[in-house]
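Appendix B. Extra example for self-study. Work through it before the problem class; the solution is given directly after the inputs so you can check yourself.
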Amino acid sequence: MGMMAATGLAVARLRNLFSVVMLGGIFSLLGAAVYVVLDAVDVAFTEAAVGAGISTVLMLGTLALTSSEEKVTPGHKSVGALIVVIVTGAVLIYGTLDMPRYGDPTAPINSHVAPRYLEQSPNETAVPNVVTSVLASYRGYDTLGETFVIFTAAIGVLALIGRGRRKRKPSSNSDGGDE
Amino acid sequence: MRHMIILRVVSKFLIPFILLFALYVQWHGDFGPGGGFQAGVIFAAGFILYALIFGVDLTRKEIPAWVTRTALVCGVLLYAGVGVAGMLMGGNFLSYSVLAHEPTHGQHLGILLVEVGVGITVAAAMITIFLTFAGKDR
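Solution. Structure tokens for the complete assembly:
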């Protein structure tokens, strides 16, 4: 966690976007390690593959299209933004003080529907990995929505920048992208 | 990167195993960590590695735009189709228990198909997004 904080600070300080993207990948990998420590192997798997792998490559692709140096406005002091960030962080930390301890068996998250899933999943779905049965069966609607989100993302990218090769008419000013 | 022989040889050696590992993650998601999302991303990573080493044009020759676009739609339709199939066979939308004679078999079948749908969509989406970004400046 300390290393994640250090990486985050470095991302905020750096001006070279290439280093920022690389540090972002490192940040995701550290996050995946934290998930492994918390025994959430499925989430760690996803974080390592999506966060550290694909998003880094996609960000590099974006950098290739734009510039790799952040534009700095000289003499621009952002005291107001700093105060907003500090206040928001303080409120968030204050909010976490009321949360139950991690792994508390009487916490609402562990006493609402989770025990039923854990007890009934082997009988109802006969799938050994409870994460998969919750993801695909009990929470099928949510996963359908997530799939549509990814589908929409790809469609959006295609609509915005994907039609460059076919329409090279002088009139086209890449104005055909509505999501 | 078209002249770096070590990268070319090693990536050619690795890509089949990456794709194989993606399929393993896909079909083994019922028993261990993994599933459609992770498998789709790993599968796409294989193609993205190929595109990084050998160039976008060659990748588009291997996997044309219509293939990824069709796969993109097919994955979502497969997921939603499993839900509609559950409705047609007398259950609610996305209830898999009616898909086979025994409820657990139906659940197993439904989860498997749904995960395949997720995997196809995620892989196609990632390949599409990457190739669109990478092929833009040409």
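Self-check: Chain A touches chain B at residues 41-42, 45-46, 49-50, 53-54, 57-58, 61-62, 64-65, 123-129, 131-133, 135-137, 140-141, 143-144, 146-148, 150-151, 153-155, 157-158, 161-162, 164-165 (CB under 8 Å). If your reasoning did not lead you there, revisit section 3.
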